[in-house]
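Before the break, one more example. Copy the sequence into your notebook; we will annotate it together after we see the structure.
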Amino acid sequence: MTKPACTQINPEKLILSKWTSVNPHHKEKHFIVTEVIRDEQEQIISCLLEAVINHNQYELDWRELKDLSCWLPGWR
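Here is what the structure looks like once it is written out:
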């Protein structure tokens, strides 16, 4: 059985969700969403991911988290 190419995400439940990078850089593998960024119409456009190991923060379009070839939900 193969995994689906993308996963369903409820953007309203992104805050404090945990993610694992499939291709870690600088030993940054586990991340937590610390903030969601909204536009003028209150639509979520991106999120702020914080690396657990060193607390570096990265802004990412929240839709990119759906790509299972880059991101896995939870910490694995």
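Residues 14-73 form one domain. The longest strand covers residues 28-38. Try to locate both features in your own notes.
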